[in-house]
């Protein structure tokens, strides 16, 4: 059931909280300004985003990459994502196969992160629906939300039988991942000195040591029948002294998966026999132990082992019978074609279960003893009715006592909870589905019920544990829910995730990032900004600002990424950290979110300069330019080591980075435009072909541009007459020549790089604004090795395409222009915009999602002094800090003309000669070369 239209309008105006948690309080008694209610932005924001549907992208690299992701989302079978959730609840998985990798039971670390990708997928679908309006995405969202609602409802109840066709009649299936087993009464063996145990089983998985049955007290006194021993064959064992004292029967061939097999064991008079499908496959004539020797046992389980590391049996049971005598071989053979009740053996006289039940969780005993069995979960059930996950609550419980990380035991359960919570919130905002909001609210109520009981010291220890204690952007999501619900316990829950050591250090500017896992910590600060919005505690916002400065630029690679092998190194460690595992893609995603959110509070252009850098390079370049129906094709790491080839299908395509990559590719429009909270200004942050609909002003603004292939953009205002200030970002990398015209008239003003140019006026229908943004080729030097450099043309990182795996060496001054632009040294590739060659090597935009080996960094070498391709033959001297003579000369560009350059060359040479860095004769040679050379203006 959808919420009332007015409520939905406010919620949808929130944009999409995955990109901007622009939510407004709907709770009674919480004051909210009318303008906030209209925009959905927190009152603390001085800028507000537009709704995603208000910004329509036009044809560009962004729309091409987005279309690939939209097609993937449109066609993917979401029941595959729901498989692990349904399995955890003991529901039918409808024949779906989980995606694998991190999203399945057989993935890395025992599948301990399963469920996370489903949350990402929900967010991607929500953004796709909001951005395109296509019904197919809303339908998929509603299908997923409905299924998750059914999952939660099933988890709230005791487990119920999943009835399937049996060998005879019906059978009971335990779905793999359900952690369900059948509990028999403790009198089921009756102290019998002889016994026959028989069952029809249909295994659906080949895991070793999964029990068909296990009767015992512990791992000392028991008997068991397993479908697969260490060699993959059936095994029966009985012992009163643990594994070392087992008397056993071992089969000779595996039970086939997905097929019915009959397994039976008889024990009498010191002889045990194992039968498979009516044939005796093992005999032990020294089997002195019987059920009577075990005495009264505590547990009698079908499908569960007393060894905690053993898996729960996955598959179906039919016709489980226990007799207090050893059946004959002929009687065993007869059971192959007839139910026991119709055979000469008759139903088991100790217990008999035919699994004819189609509802409930109790299985009738037809032996006449009333030893009815009960379906149970190994972990019991949720501690709170709001619990929702693709695995038991055990990971959350185990984390509370952990002191160090081990992702094979506990892998970031609150991180996965965040992805699911985020996806549900986005689903609600996009479609108005009240079930999604109810599921999200329930999750937060459950988390509060768990975490609020723990001592603060326990929480601090948990959140400080690497990997296991990672919680992603959960604080941001909880704050967004609080903005809807107004429930005090939701805000209290958000604050329970405070990691005081990190917050306090960053609040006072103490950099403790070295050695920390990057993506475990970046989203913490987005949550802190949202906590500031809701609490006005300055330390939260101050910590986030200071943290950002600790990453940009001191731990940032040229493409905008950060981290090496997922961790941060020392400040300024760039060249020394280049590897195959630099720049985890999630880090860029989360740094963009943080930059965007900080900009809402403080309009420092540095935030948007970074946003452009990371978006146009790492984020675009992380998405392969190729269609695929099964995988999103997004990088995990982007290796910046020489000759690296990007891997777009890491770990079966379901990693965290592929999740955030899906989100990035469906929200490219989210930061092109912002508006002043009072409606007095429009910020143009990115020069991206798009159309903005500013409903409050009654205008549209259309950007027509080929940027970054075009060095500028044209904006056309249509609609009503409206007064506002148009603020155009002046990129930090631009130089002289940034120019703005309105209807052909130059706007007077001097705008420095790294600022915003403001044009305040009353706008009329048809007004046209032209922004000219001159590009130039430039280098950025690694902070720890100035000779290791990366190349930029305007916002575009240019990478060399070459299969060599050592640094390529290039010189760039040989044909530098009087403007200081290094571009004339490169040769354009005809028909391929932004492609160039140098010394026979092609350079291309990093953003192109190819599998070409690339060099994002190269080694700079300018061995001799060269001007305008005129080589002086004189060695290019350097100061102790590595600055060369040519560096010093070209740092003073632009030059008005050749004469100005030659004059500066002479004065610089004189100072270097005086300093003893250059001989007088060589100085004269340098000046002569500068005079002889011809220059590009």
The secondary-structure class comes to alpha+beta
- Unreliable runs: 1-39
> Which value, in Å, is the CA radius of gyration?
34 Å
Oligomeric nature of the chains: single chain
List the helices and strands and how they pair.
Elements (H helix, E strand, L loop, with lengths): L4 H8 L21 H6 L7 E3 L5 E3 L3 H15 L3 H10 L19 H4 L4 H17 L2 H22 L6 E3 L4 E5 L5 E4 L11 E9 L7 E6 L5 E5 L8 E5 L7 E4 L10 E8 L2 E6 L2 E6 L6 H4 L4 E4 L12 E9 L5 H6 L16 E3 L8 E2 L9 E5 L16 H6 L13 H19 L2 H18 L4 H8 L10 H12 L2 H8 L4 H8 L10 H18 L2 H14 L33 H17 L3 H17 L34 H9 L8 E4 L4 E4 L5 E5 L4 E6 L7 E8 L2 E9 L8 E4 L2 E2 L8 E9 L4 E5 L4 E6 L2 E9 L2 E6 L7 E2 L16 E2 L7 E3 L2 E5 L8 E2 L2 E3 L3 E4 L2 E6 L9 H6 L7 H17 L5 H13 L5
Parallel strand pairs: 20-24, 32-37
Antiparallel strand pairs: 1-19, 2-21, 3-4, 4-15, 5-14, 5-18, 6-11, 6-15, 7-8, 7-14, 8-9, 9-10, 11-12, 12-13, 15-16, 17-18, 19-20, 21-22, 22-23, 23-28, 24-27, 25-26, 25-28, 29-30, 30-31, 30-37, 31-35, 31-36, 33-34, 34-35, 38-39
Helix pairs in contact: 4-7, 6-7, 6-11, 6-21, 7-11, 11-12, 11-14, 12-15, 14-15, 14-17, 16-18, 17-18, 17-19, 18-19, 19-20, 23-24
Structure description:
There is one protein chain. The chain has 937 residues and is an alpha+beta fold. The strands form 6 sheets. Strands 29, 30, 31, 32, 33, 34, 35, 36 and 37 form a 9-stranded mixed sheet that branches. Strands 3, 4, 6, 11, 12, 13, 15 and 16 form an 8-stranded antiparallel sheet that branches. A hairpin with a 4-residue loop joins strand 19 and strand 20. Helix 17 packs parallel to helix 19 (585-601). The longest helix has 22 residues, at 135-156. The model is unreliable at 1-39 (pLDDT under 50).
């Amino acid at each position: 059931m959808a919420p009332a239209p007015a409520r939905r309008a406010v919620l949808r105006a929130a944009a999409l909280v995955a990109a901007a948690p622009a939510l407004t309080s709907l709770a009674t008694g919480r004051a909210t300004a009318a303008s906030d209610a209209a925009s959905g932005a927190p009152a603390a924001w001085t800028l507000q985003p537009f709704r995603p549907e208000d910004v329509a992208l036009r044809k560009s690299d962004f729309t091409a990459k987005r279309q690939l992701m939209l097609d993937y989302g449109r066609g993917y079978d979401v029941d595959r994502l729901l498989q692990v959730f349904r399995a955890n609840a003991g529901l039918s998985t409808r024949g779906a196969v989980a995606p694998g990798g991190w999203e399945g039971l057989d993935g890395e670390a025992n599948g301990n992160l399963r469920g996370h990708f489903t949350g990402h997928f929900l967010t991607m679908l929500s953004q796709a629906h909001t951005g395109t309006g296509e019904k197919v995405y809303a339908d998929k969202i509603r299908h997923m939300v409905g299924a998750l609602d059914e999952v939660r409802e099933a988890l709230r109840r005791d487990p119920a039988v999943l009835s399937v066709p049996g060998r005879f009649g019906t059978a009971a299936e335990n779905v793999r991942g359900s952690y369900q087993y059948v509990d028999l009464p403790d009198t089921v063996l009756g102290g019998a000195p002889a016994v026959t145990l028989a069952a029809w089983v249909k295994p659906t998985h080949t895991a070793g040591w999964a029990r068909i049955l296990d009767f015992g007290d512990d791992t000392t006194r028991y008997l068991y029948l397993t479908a697969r021993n260490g060699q993959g064959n059936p095994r029966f064992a009985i012992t009163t002294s643990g594994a070392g004292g087992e008397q056993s029967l071992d089969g000779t061939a595996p039970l086939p998966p997905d097929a019915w097999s009959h397994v039976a064991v008889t024990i009498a008079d010191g002889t045990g026999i194992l039968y498979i499908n009516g044939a005796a496959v093992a005999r032990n004539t020294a089997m002195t132990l019987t059920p009577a020797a075990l005495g009264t046992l505590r547990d009698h389980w079908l499908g569960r082992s007393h060894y905690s590391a053993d898996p729960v049996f996955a598959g179906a049971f039919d016709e489980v019978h226990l007799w207090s005598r050893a059946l004959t071989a002929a009687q065993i053979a007869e059971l192959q074609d007839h139910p026991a009740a119709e055979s000469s053996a008759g139903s088991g006289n100790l217990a008999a279960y035919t699994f004819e039940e189609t509802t409930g969780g109790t299985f009738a005993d037809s032996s006449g003893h009333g030893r009815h069995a009960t379906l149970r979960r190994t972990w019991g059930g949720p501690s709170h009715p709001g619990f929702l996950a693709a695995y038991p609550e055990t990971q959350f419980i185990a984390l509370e006592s952990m002191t160090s990380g081990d992702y094979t035991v506990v892998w970031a359960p609150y991180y996965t909870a965040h992805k699911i919570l985020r996806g549900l919130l986005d689903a609600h905002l996009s479609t108005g589905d009240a079930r999604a909001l109810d599921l999200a609210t329930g999750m937060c109520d459950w988390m509060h019920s768990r975490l609020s009981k723990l001592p603060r010291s326990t929480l601090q220890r948990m959140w400080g544990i690497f990997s296991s204690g990672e919680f992603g952007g959960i604080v941001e999501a909880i704050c967004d829910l609080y903005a809807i619900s107004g429930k005090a316990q939701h805000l209290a829950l958000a604050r329970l995730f405070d990691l005081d050591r990190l917050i306090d250090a960053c609040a006072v500017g103490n950099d403790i990032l070295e050695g920390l896992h990057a993506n475990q910590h970046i989203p913490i600060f987005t949550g802190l900004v949202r906590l500031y919005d809701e609490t006005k505690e300055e330390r939260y916002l101050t910590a986030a600002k200071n943290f950002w400065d600790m990453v940009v630029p001191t731990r940032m690679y040229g493409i905008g990424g950060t981290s090496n092998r997922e961790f941060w190194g020392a400040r300024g460690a760039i060249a020394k950290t280049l590897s195959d595992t630099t720049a985890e893609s999630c880090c860029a995603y989360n740094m963009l979110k943080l930059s965007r959110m900080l900009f809402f509070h403080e309009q420092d252009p540095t935030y948007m300069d970074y946003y452009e850098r990371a978006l146009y390079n790492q984020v675009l370049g992380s998405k392969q330019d190729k269609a695929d129906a099964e995988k999103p094709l997004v990088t995990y790491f982007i290796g910046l080591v020489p000759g690296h080839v990007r891997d777009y299908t890491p770990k079966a395509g379901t990693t965290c980075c592929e999740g955030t990559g899906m989100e990035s590719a469906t929200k490219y429009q989210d930061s092109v435009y912002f508006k002043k909270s009072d409606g007095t200004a429009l910020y143009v942050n990115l020069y991206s072909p798009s159309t903005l609909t500013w409903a409050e002003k009654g205008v549209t603004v259309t950007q027509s541009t080929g940027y970054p292939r075009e060095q500028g953009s044209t904006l056309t205002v249509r609609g009503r007459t409206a007064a506002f200030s148009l603020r155009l970002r002046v990129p930090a990398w631009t130089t002289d020549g940034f120019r703005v015209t309105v209807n052909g008239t130059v706007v007077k003003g001097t705008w420095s790089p790294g600022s915003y140019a403001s044009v305040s006026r009353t706008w009329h229908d048809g007004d046209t604004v032209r922004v000219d943004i001159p590009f130039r080729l430039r280098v950025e030097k690694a902070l720890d090795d100035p000779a290791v450099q990366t190349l930029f043309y305007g916002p575009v990182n240019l990478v060399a395409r070459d299969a060599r795996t050592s640094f390529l060496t290039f010189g760039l001054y040989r044909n530098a222009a009087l403007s200081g632009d290094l571009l004339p040294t490169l040769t354009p590739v005809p028909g391929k915009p932004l492609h160039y060659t140098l010394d026979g090597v092609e350079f291309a935009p990093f953003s192109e999602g190819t599998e070409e080996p690339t060099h994002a960094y190269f080694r700079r070498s300018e061995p001799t002094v060269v001007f305008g391709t005129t080589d002086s033959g004189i060695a290019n001297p350097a100061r102790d800090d590595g600055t060369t003579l040519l560096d010093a000369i070209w740092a003073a560009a632009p030059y008005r003309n050749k004469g100005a350059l030659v004059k500066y060359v002479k004065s610089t040479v004189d100072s270097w000669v005086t300093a003893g860095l250059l001989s007088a004769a060589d100085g004269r040679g340098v000046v002569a070369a500068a005079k002889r050379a011809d220059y590009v203006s």
